[in-house]
Design a protein that fits this description.
The structure is a homodimer.
Chain A (H helix, E strand, L loop, with lengths): L6 H23 L6 H8 L5 H6 L2 H31 L6 H14 L8 H11 L5 H25 L5 H20 L1 H4 L10 H4 L2 H16 L13
Helix pairs in contact in A: 1-2, 1-4, 1-6, 4-5, 4-7, 5-11, 6-8, 8-11
Chain A binds a DNA duplex through helix 1 and helix 3.
Amino acid sequence: MAEPRAGESRNADTRERILDAAERLFMAHGYEGTSMRQITGEAGVNLAAVNYHFGSKESLVQEVFRRRLDWLNDERMRVLDELEHEAAGRPLKPSQIVDGFFGTLLRMADDEARGGMTFLRLLGRTLIEPSEFIRTFLAQEYRTVVERYKEALFKALPDVPKAEIVWRFHFMLGATSYAIAGTDALRLVTDWQIEDEATMDRLDHLLPRLMSFLLGGLRAPLPQLNEGGQI
Amino acid sequence: MAEPRAGESRNADTRERILDAAERLFMAHGYEGTSMRQITGEAGVNLAAVNYHFGSKESLVQEVFRRRLDWLNDERMRVLDELEHEAAGRPLKPSQIVDGFFGTLLRMADDEARGGMTFLRLLGRTLIEPSEFIRTFLAQEYRTVVERYKEALFKALPDVPKAEIVWRFHFMLGATSYAIAGTDALRLVTDWQIEDEATMDRLDHLLPRLMSFLLGGLRAPLPQLNEGGQI
DNA sequence: TCCATGTTCATACGTTTGTTTAAAACATAA
DNA sequence: TTATGTTTTAAACAAACGTATGAACATGGA
């Protein structure tokens, strides 16, 4: 380990250590289930450090997400810009759009410097986090990106009602959320000791699997909606 | 309101009042985010009542789920028994199985006596709840039912690798979870003021929408898995 | 050297947490 | 009525919570 050079360097180091510890603990135990003392303990810093550097626990969790989401959503925007530029006006293929949004997300798992699997699992279970202010915060962070991808899907699937696309976007988010929430949640479906456990959580298998599923759902035949009263 | 007749009647009433309040509050604020004082306050009972009737907060939340899941999973078993009996050995259609598992769940929303939408939304966000002991508990409660439906899917889709089906079951759970987690989570995708808000959350629309999506995903073309190293 | 600035530290504050206690109130049956 | 078991009640408990404070320390420029 390299010695921190001096004041400002230690400063930045402390912030990062706190963010890393908070990310891991929020992932494991949730926001309300994680205490300041756990965070500062695991980070090896003083209890008061969080309030000094971030102001409050609420601000801390927001910074935990912002640190990763800023890059992710910028990247998603960049990818969509590039796709639309190459398409030169013609509508994109749904698979391109889905990969731009969800593929870009899942590929973060390979990048340990961007939070890797830890952040992905945290995000996966936080989109439907009980804590009101976190959901509100995430909704704001995602607003513009989701809006652009929604519009792209509208153009790519002109024959599908917009409300239908919105719902299917929502369903895709759910499937992806479970996909990355990881082996914890998978215990619901598998019997702990699955024969090919080793290959179950290979990331290079997860992405194509999820992508097939999402596209299958997105392009499914439209349901017959009974416009009258009861079903 | 009918007067409670006598001792045992008041007893049961207090228990039910606590369970109802806890269900609603856990749905709104999560397990860790809900205090005993909130629960007993909303239920209109004494603070000590929870510990007297249920022993602890952990036992309470387990009873909240058990009260609904017992019926749900029995019903799922019954439906699958019936389907397999009618099929008389021949494999079921995937749509029948999916409807038996997820349709039975969603149709609970119409039954206010079974918890209705409140319990559904609670369940939706609890399958990936951070609290370890809740996930463990749910995994146990679901074990046998999930196992039977998995087997049914294996038989219904003999050409699809079992690992693939397990994953897709998992994805379906995720999509369903988001579907029932309700309008809170939908804010991620919609712009608050959607034109046809009124029709967005009509339950008789949600079920066929979700079903199309799930079946589309379940029957999607198999992904090309790179059996070698990196993707 | 001195001061100013930024950071760390131990400690304490006021609340809130889940749970326990012992007495009171109640219901049931002899 | 008396005796017995069950349920409700107010009050208290220790522990943990997020946050605030002021002294100690380190650093860089004057």
